[in-house]
């Protein structure tokens, strides 16, 4: 058996974590031969609820769960962490402006970035799920100058999976028949779900569906799926968000399949003309625990316009918290 790895999860008493923790502990994320130690962070008022979650984790008697640590102090929860899933965030409260939300989260993610910098493994892989995820990841990254900036990522895998499901439904295919889906940009309603490179059973997806469906149905449905789930369920996506976080870390750690790629929001290196440094969702392949942005794709005018809209939104979010970035 391998040595256990340390997986820190924030917002551990929340609804996404209620699905996520059990799947990590069962081996869905890092493999059925990889023991894990869960290091769970919550705010002080949620520590009792978190103790209840830990009781349930114990009661599952997961063979791979080598330990559980709980804390309301980031320096304890992130100590020597190999993976950090930053799920907890401040939700938008009544009367809160977008700017207030950005600032409240900037405060949380700057503290957590500093703590990761101080105590996490030097190779820690960070996934930010808590919204606004891309900008929260940027804030954490900037506050962790001693860690590899490339190891700070944000989640657009849920959007990627939603796009696969919509295209599969329309073409009568299975999601596993589809390759090379892309989500560009921000995890928000400006994201650009792009099927121009996608194939379904080897055929170009764009030739299989009406252009009008793609532009006026597929794109807005994927962009607005989170809101549709809140409307139907009375609560935001949780199990699907947890599943996508599992997919994101699993593929980053263990690799993407040959001939396919996934979408991850990662620090832009200037690829496709996207401003360097923004945490922007690109198509990436993963191998040996590292990711590479897919290069050389043709970008037509339709795509370029949408890629720029979501880039601008990320620039605005960043400029809104610029005074809090070191
Ligand atoms: P919940 O409100 O159920 O849980 C969040 C938990 O985080 C709470 O238990 C809270 O006490 C805790 N928390 C708040 N501040 C914290 C801090 N400073 N340190 C540690 N814990 C803290 O929300 P949930 O439904 O689990 O969603 C969590 C986040 O994921 C939200 O920001 C949500 O908007 C975001 N989402 C992101 C998605 C993505 O694709 N990137 C999709 C799903 C989800 O909407």
TrEMBL record:
Domain named Lactate/malate dehydrogenase N-terminal: residues: 5-152
PANTHER family, per database record: MALATE DEHYDROGENASE
Keyword tags: NAD, Oxidoreductase, Tricarboxylic acid cycle
Residues holding substrate: 92, 98, 131, 162
Chain sites annotated for binding NAD(+): 11-17, 105, 112, 129-131
Domain of life: Bacteria
UniProt similarity note: Belongs to the LDH/MDH superfamily. MDH type 2 family.
Protein task: Catalyzes the reversible oxidation of malate to oxaloacetate.
Gene Ontology terms, MF aspect: L-malate dehydrogenase (NAD+) activity
First-tier enzyme category under EC: oxidoreductase
Signal peptide start and end residues: none
Reactions that this protein is recorded to catalyse: (S)-malate + NAD(+) = oxaloacetate + NADH + H(+)
Enzyme Commission number, as recorded: 1.1.1.37
Coiled-coil regions listed: none
Name of the molecule in the record: Malate dehydrogenase
Pfam families, A to Z: Ldh_1_C, Ldh_1_N
Domain (Lactate/malate dehydrogenase C-terminal): residue spans on this chain: 156-321
NCBIfam families: MalateDH-SF1, PRK05442.1
Catalytic residues (UniProt): 187 (proton acceptor)
Organism of provenance: Ectothiorhodospira magna
GO biological process, one term: tricarboxylic acid cycle
Database matches in CDD domains: MDH_chloroplast-like
């Amino acid at each position: 058996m391998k040595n256990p790895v340390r997986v820190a999860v924030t917002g551990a008493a929340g609804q996404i974590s209620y699905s996520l923790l059990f799947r990590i502990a069962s081996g869905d994320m890092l493999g059925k031969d990889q023991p894990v130690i869960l290091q769970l962070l919550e705010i002080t008022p949620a520590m009792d609820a978190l103790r209840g979650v830990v009781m349930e984790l114990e009661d599952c008697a997961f063979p791979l769960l080598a330990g559980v640590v709980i804390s309301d102090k980031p320096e304890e929860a992130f100590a020597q962490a190999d993976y950090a899933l930053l799920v907890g965030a401040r939700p938008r409260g009544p009367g809160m402006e977008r700017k207030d939300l950005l600032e409240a989260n900037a405060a949380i993610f700057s503290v957590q970035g500093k703590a990761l910098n101080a105590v996490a493994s030097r190779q820690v892989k960070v996934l930010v799920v808590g919204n606004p995820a891309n900008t929260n990841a940027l804030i954490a990254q900037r506050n962790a100058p001693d860690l590899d900036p490339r190891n700070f990522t944000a989640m657009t895998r849920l959007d990627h999976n939603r796009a696969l499901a919509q295209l599969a439904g329309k073409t009568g295919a299975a999601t596993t028949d589809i390759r090379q889906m892309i989500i560009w940009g921000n995890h928000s309603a400006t994201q650009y779900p792009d099927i121009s490179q996608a194939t379904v059973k080897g055929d170009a997806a764009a030739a299989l569906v009406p252009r009008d469906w793609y532009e006026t149905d597929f794109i807005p449905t994927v962009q607005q799926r989170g809101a549709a789930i809140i409307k139907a369920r009375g609560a935001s996506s949780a199990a699907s968000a947890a599943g996508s976080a599992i997919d994101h870390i699993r593929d980053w750690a263990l690799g993407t399949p040959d001939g396919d790629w996934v979408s991850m929001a990662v620090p832009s290196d200037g690829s496709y003309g996207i401003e360097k440094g923004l945490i922007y969702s690109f198509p990436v392949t993963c191998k040996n625990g590292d990711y590479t942005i897919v290069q050389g794709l043709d970008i037509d005018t339709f795509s370029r316009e949408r890629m720029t809209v979501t880039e601008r939104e990320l620039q605005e979010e960043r400029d809104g918290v610029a005074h809090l970035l070191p």
